[in-house]
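haha ok so turns out i had the wrong file open the whole time. this is the CORRECT one, sorry everyone. sequence first:
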Amino acid sequence: ADGRAMFRDLNPDLVERLYDRSIRYSVMELPFFGWIDGLPEPVQGPVQGAVKGLVSAAINAKVDFSVDLRWGEAGYDNTKFLQARAPSQPPIVRHPVTG
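then structure:
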């Protein structure tokens, strides 16, 4: 299949909606922070902030793009996790030489 032809044939409204959505990829999930819920409630927020800061510094020291960390809860027991997201990416990436 001709990839360039496929992109030319896309409905322009669809392409515009894709660009408007600011696609972000989850590049990592760290699912082992359920222990924070076991701490006294007044210290949970500060501990989350400290953990997020340390993890952010460690990850951003290893990758060549800025990573945004977000707290979430998932799984059968709603375990707290940190999700690392890459910066917004364009939905269609053109080849630098052939376009």
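The CA atoms of residues 64 and 80 lie 27 Å apart.
again sry for the mixup
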